[in-house]
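It is worth pausing here to work through a concrete case rather than discussing structure prediction in the abstract. The textbook approach is simple: state the sequence, then state the predicted structure, then interpret. We follow exactly that order.
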Amino acid sequence: MSGVDNKGLEGGWFTFPPSRPVRLIPPIVLAYIGDAIYEVAVRQYLISLPNLRPHHLHRTATNLVSAKAQSRILSFLDPMLTEEERDIVRQGRNAKSGSLPKNADVLEYRHATAFECLVGYLYYVEHHDRLRELIGQAIEYMVNPAE
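Step two, the predicted structure:
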């Protein structure tokens, strides 16, 4: 997008900065934005593939963004995380969401929330390269788990 003024985009894709410093945003709120960021990443990945039938896109996306999948992803990524990232994950895992999971057990749901919290945190602290790296590895792991 040449000619687009990117001033004011600090902290995210749009000109709506968070209302407080990132470290003061509740983990559930970081998970809220992290869920959306991860969903967009998965959709963009799927659209990069040759099979663009809507039903196939939806089914594949669901397999990558489910709480069960995100819980597996977090376990896979854990050895690669920095201490700071592990601290964010711990906060996300321990956060009380106020709702019960529909399609996952409580442990999977907490780990999925922790993963989303990490994604939201990396997004808002502008560690976009790290965010792309971890999401790329997560998708690769889920698409080719044996490799």
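Step three, interpretation. The radius of gyration is 16 Å. The longest helix spans residues 27-47.
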